[in-house]
Design brief:
single chain, mainly beta, 6-stranded antiparallel sheet, 3-stranded antiparallel sheet, 15 strands, about 5% helix, globular, binds D-sorbitol-6-phosphate, binds zinc ion
Length: about 200
């Protein structure tokens, strides 16, 4: 029996598995971020050094259908942050500003629970709760970092402009204005100046 319609064949197309948050296709790129690549990012650097340096904190799959830096294009990706902690601080991404502060981004949560931490140019820092189905619009002026506060992987789609670029240096040097820590067993956004109180 003939199918009512056929999906067009795309040689370098990408398929999304919306249930698991997986991207499939020859054009999909991927990278992994182990603890050893996150020096100076967590509050408790001594604890980070004690842990197995090859522990995967997060991994990213993405598709670049247009050239990096070209105007008007979009990239699509998915990030998986594994559950875990360095001391009282939950596993999280490095975090970045976009090099081009006029370039916004969308995140959409697939699975797990977490926090999207946002910081403006004045270092004011706040968070949005990430739960399956939550959609997050990230203004291009704001730094963004995601944190897995649950016991299962936190997985989210992302869509961002080809010419957004990355400014990791500002975060590496100054961090965010707050960190997500386990306080009495619950995740809390703790201002950096209050960390040692
Ligand atoms: C890119 C987008 C995500 C992150 C990914 C890893 O603009 O925000 O794909 O790159 O979540 O985070 P980070 O901070 O290591 O780039
Ligand atoms: Zn981004």
């Amino acid at each position: 029996m003939a199918m009512p319609f056929e999906l067009p064949h795309q040689a370098d197309g990408v398929t999304l598995d919306w249930q698991t948050g997986t991207m499939i296709g020859a054009a999909v790129q991927q990278s992994r971020k182990p603890l050893k690549d996150l020096a100076g990012i967590f509050r408790d650097e001594a604890r980070r050094k004690q842990a197995d340096p090859d522990t995967t904190v997060y991994q990213v799959q993405w598709w670049e259908p247009a050239a990096t830096g070209s105007e008007g294009g979009l990239f699509w990706g998915v990030t998986t942050i594994f559950p875990g902690r360095v001391g009282e601080e939950y596993f999280m991404t490095h975090g970045h500003f976009h090099a081009n502060r006029t370039r916004a981004e969308y995140y959409g949560t697939v699975q797990g629970e977490g926090m999207l931490v946002l910081m403006n140019a004045n270092r004011q820092t706040w968070s949005e709760r990430m739960v399956p189905g939550s959609l997050h619009y990230i203004d291009g002026r704001n730094a963004h970092r995601t944190v897995n506060t649950g016991d299962t992987p936190l997985i989210f789609w992302a869509c961002w402009p080809t010419d957004a670029g990355y400014d990791y240096t500002t975060i590496r040097e100054k961090g965010f204005g707050a960190r997500v820590l386990s306080v009495n067993g619950k995740p809390a956004l703790v201002p950096s100046h209050a960390e040692n109180l």
